[in-house]
Amino acid sequence: MKRLLILIILNLTFTNIYSQNCVLDSNNREEITQALNENNFIAHIEIYRNRGRKFDATVSFISPNVIVGAGHSFRERWYSKIDSMKIFIGQRSNETGENVFIAKHTFKRKDIKTWVHKKFQRWGNPDFDFAIIALNKNVVNQYFELAKFSEIKDDIELVTINGYPGDKGNIELWTKSSLTENVNEKENVLLYDMFTSKGDSGAPVWSEKNGTYQLIGIHGTGHYRNGSCNGAVKLTDAYIDFFEGFINDTKIE
């Protein structure tokens, strides 16, 4: 009972740390039906757990065989283990409504190496709601570069999220953007006024600079903290160093 009370207190503590006044408009987004460069870095993922339960999410590539996504998509418990997952790279509906993708890959649990931040794995702290996953083969040749929002914000106008929202069936790729000045940077997170839905979990928060696509955050919760905003784990020096080390350790020649 005492342990349960502690967990409830911690959950309430982590639920109301930040707030930001913003209005989330579900109409302020656009479906992507054309083949764009950034589509190649993004994928719809179906994660299958015990007894065949399916979980839909969005991931993005940061190397030929490494993806990043939301921690709550990949966190495992003794009662909920990942059995397999299917990755649909660049999935979208084209101009005629046909569902297409660049490539499809299936991975068993033994084929992946997953790391979830311990502060999310243990306590569910949304400030650390991200995961990095290595696949046992190279599947793309294009991927996001890693960048810090604080270092590029003066050189960019827009911050964008591309994902596969559940209210659109998880198979349509939708994009939404916010002016850089409307993105609120906190110690561990970025807060913004872009609408998302279940299925956008793990979607890349990115920007384009001089023709380069840069990942600056990983979308976590649908309505951040107290329901007033959306948020992402932001890339910091420590995370970028860790990601690069993880990429090098799991690199496939």
Write up what this structure looks like:
- By secondary structure, the chain is of the alpha+beta class.
- The protein folds into two domains: 22-32 and 143-236, Trypsin-like serine proteases (Thrombin, subunit H), CATH 2.40.10; 37-141 and 240-249, Thrombin, subunit H (Beta Barrel), CATH 2.40.10.10.
- Helices cover 16% and strands 36% of the residues.
- It is built from five helices and 18 strands.
- The chain has helices at 2-15, 71-74, 118-123, 149-152, 237-249, and strands at 30-31, 42-49, 54-63, 66-69, 82-89, 92-93, 99-100, 103-108, 112-116, 131-135, 145-146, 158-163, 174-179, 184-185, 189-192, 204-209, 212-219, 230-234.
- Strands 1, 11, 12, 13, 14, 15, 16, 17 and 18 form a nine-stranded mixed sheet that branches.
- Strand 3 (54-63) and strand 4 (66-69) form a beta hairpin.
- The longest helix is centred in the first third of the chain and has 14 residues, at 2-15.
Shape: globular
What percentage of the residues does DSSP assign to strands (E)?
35-45%
CATH domain fold name of the largest domain: Thrombin, subunit H
Radius of gyration (Å):
17 Å
Q: Strand-and-helix sequence, N→C?
A: HEEEEHEEEEEHEEHEEEEEEEH
Any idea how many domains? 2
CATH architecture descriptor text of the largest domain = Beta Barrel
The number of strands is 18
CATH class of the largest domain, named Mainly Beta
Task: Name the CATH superfamily classification of the largest domain.
Answer: Trypsin-like serine proteases
Helix content estimate:
10-25%
Please outline the major beta sheet: 9 strands, mixed
Count, helices? 5
- Which class best fits the helix and strand makeup? alpha+beta
Poorly predicted parts: 4-22
N-C termini distance: 52 Å
Mean pLDDT: 86
